[in-house]
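FW: tagging you since you asked about this chain on Friday. Here's the raw sequence from the shared folder, copied in full. Didn't touch anything.
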Amino acid sequence: MPVFSPGRTAIFTQNAKTALQINGFPDFYALLEMPRDATSKQLETAITTRAADLLAASFSRGGQSELMVLLRRHITDFRPVLLDKNARFSYDGQLRGHENGDALALSFSNWQQTFANGNRLSRGLGVASRGLKAHLKTVFWDAEFL
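HL: got it, structure written out here
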């Protein structure tokens, strides 16, 4: 079974039919070529396929289409945003806000910061990782064998 999508050459060309961003807010569903009501399993498959397409494109000498640039920029954002229920619900709300021209809709970077700060799990992991990082730094700094 091929991992690459059948239309992987499309990442080298401009796609005028699909809006990949709405007022600067990336449309992950358009980037993945998936409907907004796609299941988590369908999205997981699409993310894997797009990552393989992007990897294949990195070895070629094709041009830099808007799709390729946005895929490269947001490839790490797909999984945490679209496969987490709360993050996807919040993302979909912001995307609808940008489509409707809502003045209160946040930019993508502001939305990421707001959602990460409001999400207790990610905040807890951030604090835990800082504590672990400081602990490891102390352990390695004081180690006599280094």
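FW: The radius of gyration is 19 Å.
HL: agreed, and The helical segments are 28-32, 40-58, 66-74, 78-82, 85-99, 108-118, 120-142.
FW: great, closing this out.
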